[in-house]
Amino acid sequence: xxxxxxxxxxxxxxxxxxxxxxxxxxxxxxxxxxxxxKSDLKLANAQIPKxxxxxxxxxxxxxxxxxxxxxxxxxxxxxxxRNEELQKVLTAPQYEKFETNFRDYQEKMEEKFGS
Length: 115
Fold this sequence. Notes:
There is one protein chain. The protein is mainly α. It has one domain (4-113). It has five helices and no strands. Residues 14-21 have low confidence and may be disordered.
């Protein structure tokens, strides 16, 4: 669980525009899927490409949003949409772990930056 928190902070950095020039959506999706989620959620080999596609879709939307000035609210919406898609791919225990950590991350970000 503690290892997933840095992932969520990375997502926040991506969504805040911090890493706009630090990699393509494809690179970000690959890193998130293969380096972090694969081990933290113990993804099965068949899940990896599906999770990658869900993350890629989110990062492409975020990249487009950032290019047009970026709205944190819209980026949060993209992240929530991604979570809904992940629920279709992950097992119940995997998604529960992911969702718990995502909620913890949101609470910490709201405390730090306000809603």
